[in-house]
Amino acid sequence: MLSDLAEEVLSDSGVDLNANDHIESHVFLLIIEKLRARVGAEMVDATLDEIIKYFFDTERTSQDDLSRIAKIARPAAPVTPENLAGYQELLKFDKIFINLIKSAQADDFIGLITYSAIRYGLLLDDNLICSWYDQNWLTNLRRVNDEYWFVLNKPKQKIGMVWTPDNFTLALISKFHDRFKKNNKWFFNIKKLLDKHMDSSGLNTKNKFLSAMKALLHNYYPGFIIESLSNRKNNRGLSEIGHIRRITRLVPPNAKVKKRNCSKKSRKNSKGKSLRIITDSLKVVSSSDEFLEKIKHVEFSPVVKLIIDCSVFYANNETEAGTKLKISAIYRIINDLTDRFTGEFKDQDLQFLPDEELLDRFKQVILNSKEHSKFNIQKSINYFLWFLHNYQNRPRFSINIVISRKSEPHPVMIFPWEYSHVHKVLKNELRMELSDDKKILINFARMALILGYRLGLRRGEIQNIRLCDFHMNGFPMLVVTPYEDKTQKSIHSNRNIAIGGRFSSDEMIFLNEFLEWRRKNSKSNEDLFLDWDSEFSIVTNRNKIFLYLSTAFRMITSDPICAFHTLRHSFASNNMFYLQLRNDESIIENNFLGLDVEQINEFKNYYDRVKTLSGGTRVFNPLHQLSMELGHASPETTLRNYVHSIDLILSNYQSRLSPELSTLGLADLFDVDRTSIQKKFKSNSDDHLRPSIIYRDFTHKKLKKLVESVDIDSWRSVEDSYHCLNLTKPLHGFDGFLNDLKKFDCKKITLRQLLMRYPELRKIRKDFLLDKALYDFLVKHNLIKSKDLLDSMIENLSKLADYDQRCRYKRWCTLRRHAENITLENNAKIKNTRGGQALVYLIKSLG
């Protein structure tokens, strides 16, 4: 006989005990869910065993229904039994697609363009297809010179990403732009086109069509490109500003430097004592037993002990869904809950709290957290509740507060010419600097910049590498490894990174000279690479270096989220571009990322080192190699978060795989005479087809009259946006001008240095610059408020036209007779005079 609990649960699950029907496996899932809501894990197992035995005895179930199959998430094979029929149908249609354009009817135009965008433009993400389809294909088409693109959005992404259509799709849009009218959904038009020319029963749904299209494209493109383009949440392209920066090499206007809040502690420095002990211990152990042994003598509060037990539980057991958590997920539970639970429960023991009170207080923890953290904290607390269900025999609870997740940050990277300019500014400042201490500081900033951009090192790794970690004999390598109390972010951070083939010849010379100088001035080879004797502490000097570099990046990108870590993203994007096109000489002609040709040739030395030897059995995977050198636990992390050059790699394939047409076909596509095509482009002697490069030329001639170019008149060059160095304070415009003018007055800096730091001074009339009374008036101000106001006034003066500057100079002449005796803080003597009125006018018009 069944227990009362078992009968009650079966009744709630809709199982009739008096019937003889077969119990399917999904019914047991419902029974487990009902049991977990009532009792703890131990009782769940006992009652479930009782029910299973009962159904076996009554022959209402079998072992097959109870078997569990472990599923490993992985990309589907290109052709599967599910999409085979659709794949074969799509192959047939793809062969006749080009021929359909000439005989297309009005109701075919939308389907033709949509198919082309997916097939040749590789627009494979359903959300992005919908975003593009819902736009007006002409008015929403964006252009700078002969570059065309659309801005597309996925849900929860505030800033859209750029999709660059292929030349053939653009040609179709230009041909049919005034002859189509969109209605229904995008797949409706493709299905109508397919049904018109063939039996498409294997492609009767959107998902089947996209699956078959992915299988088809696997024949022409690398698999990882197709998989990443199928879900652009995992690999986002550049924003529109980043895209325009790449194609124009300009910087958007009004770049604002994000000021650092020095009073606010970083997340790492604000950790509580218990959390610090736990995380530091986890970094040096390899198993849960070692972890428990290491902390067994430490006194923790009851709630922290419970969190430790929770982490050990998930290290050895599965989640409710039957999967094992990664180490990073267990770390997140510890980081999310330790300090928050300590603050909420203090020394209380959760074992003695009733279920309702415990849930209410957990909900309060979530609601009191920052908005962008709530989703992850709720997830960690639900893991903790599953642990309590098993550990304290509590009923199974979960918290489901509706939380709107914050929009994902848009990707940003530093382009090669921007990196080169920052490096150039550092070298120029080094030549002009008079102080030896500042020269050393500038050299360390140069070294940090090179290591971040060329090797993709994290800031913490650069700070902790030692002189002995550089192995420069033979093929130069850098070894990133823990030592003493210096731990790495994870076990995967311990790695060897190739220097050879990554540095330019000048950078390699500088590195060797720098290492030689450091070894001469260090006590041992174990000394830190970024450490030197100075009047300031090493922490202060490091902060100056990294704050300066982050500020410089924000100024040359006009992006407030740009930081030193952006160099790591740039390293991943650049090297993926190198590795994918390693055997393709067309990279030099189609250099979409603006990489230096010398650097491309240098990279061959690196590639020769890591590639598979002829006759070897090892398979070389560019993504896995890059992920290993970045120190990532999984290549998925590298592709999802760090590589932003997939679209640029894609452009190289698109230019070669666009369909080739005959002279007659091209003349019909572009509505031109055949002779105009024959004069400009030669045909292939074998099949008389014209090269696909012809699309761009004729399409641009037609579209430039229909699509207005994006206004970039206010954009400026990288050189104009960033031109000077100040390691003690981030500079923007004329910030700090009065302080530097005083240094010039005391002969601490030269006139050349002053003009280098503030080149906009050259735009001010000579009447102002040569006025000794104005110079004396400026340098006698000491209050920060007054100096900031004068900095702003001089900057605004430099932006005025010559006539407007002349008017301000006349007002200054009226004020000048009183300038010797007054400052901005002490102007009472002239307040009601013509001089006072002139001062008020200058402050209002320039301040």
Task: Give an overview in words.
Helix 20 crosses helix 24. A three-stranded antiparallel sheet has the order 1-2-3. A three-stranded antiparallel sheet has the order 5-6-7. It has five domains: 63 residues, no CATH class; 156 residues; 119 residues, no CATH class; 232 residues, Topoisomerase I, Chain A, domain 3 (Alpha-Beta Complex); 114 residues, no CATH class. 53% of the residues lie in helices and 3% in strands. A hairpin with a 2-residue loop joins strand 1 and strand 2. It is mainly α and 847 residues long.
Task: Name the features.
three-stranded antiparallel beta sheet, globular, 5 domains, 40 helices, 847 residues, mainly alpha, single chain
Topology:
Elements: H1 4-12, H2 25-36, H3 41-57, H4 63-66, H5 84-100, H6 109-119, H7 126-133, E1 142-144, E2 147-152, E3 161-163, H8 167-176, H9 186-197, H10 206-217, H11 223-230, H12 240-248, E4 250-251, H13 273-282, H14 288-294, H15 302-316, H16 327-345, H17 355-367, H18 374-391, H19 416-432, H20 436-455, H21 459-464, E5 470-471, E6 477-480, E7 495-498, H22 505-520, H23 538-557, H24 566-580, H25 586-589, H26 597-610, H27 622-630, H28 635-642, H29 646-657, H30 663-670, H31 674-680, H32 694-703, E8 716-717, H33 718-721, H34 737-745, H35 751-757, H36 766-769, H37 772-779, H38 784-798, H39 802-816, H40 834-846
Antiparallel strand pairs: 1-2, 2-3, 4-8, 5-6, 6-7
Helix pairs in contact: 2-3, 5-10, 6-8, 6-9, 8-32, 13-16, 15-16, 16-18, 17-18, 19-20, 20-23, 20-24, 24-27, 27-28, 38-40, 39-40
